[in-house]
Here is the input.
Amino acid sequence: MPVIELLASPAAWAALLTLIVMEVVLGIDNLVFVAILSNKLPEADRARTRRIGIGLALVMRLLLLTTISWIVGMTAPVIDLGLTGAADAHGNPSFETAFSIRDLILIAGGLFLLYKATTEIHHSVDPAESDSPLDKTNSQKSLGFAAAIAQILMLDLVFSIDSILTAVGMTDELPIMIVAVVVAVGVMLIAADPLSNFIAKNPTVVMLALGFLLMIGLVLIADGFGVHVPKGYVYTAMAFSAGVEILNIWSRKARERRGGNGAAH
Here is the structure.
């Protein structure tokens, strides 16, 4: 459909708004990972890393949109183990043993997220680690700028494929997909610094975000094996947990203010 006709079509505008919301929601996973990883770098490199990482996500999504036919073909099985999974209540196999390229990418990305989140949790709870400023600086510098960009790029590929397949499933119009992707990545770019700073200033939020990454990794692996977990459940759980943590932060700040006022008197 020509662009002029799209602009005059209420259905096209409805599809665009719906797709923008979906793309923004799907981008939360990508954004949380970028925020946590960039916070491991020296402060001078953090903002630059976030912008480059999110910019690469945009470039990757736009490149994938130009190869939609190839992306759709990625859902065709390329490996079949010939096994039969246990049947569910409807008699269907509970998991797939024929894997497409998309499935393999999701499984690899999920495993990487599990490894990364588990490693970061271990570093956070290891009592042998020192809290001295020197050790913290060395810990941050242990992750180089190039290594951070490489890890972000790897996860960008996983999340970009998921994002583009969602777009393809919702509309056939390439201009709508491009606009939705650009707007969604723009929202990610605007939210990146505030989210990263908030996570850095609240240590308990770091652990919560790492828990999110663990859950996202498990969902990606399950999706790769054909066990589709409704995204609404995942994001509802994340929103509920984040809401509880925000209440905890407000409560701690209120106690600190009351304590400070009491000390002043």
Summary: The first helix runs from residue 3 to 7.
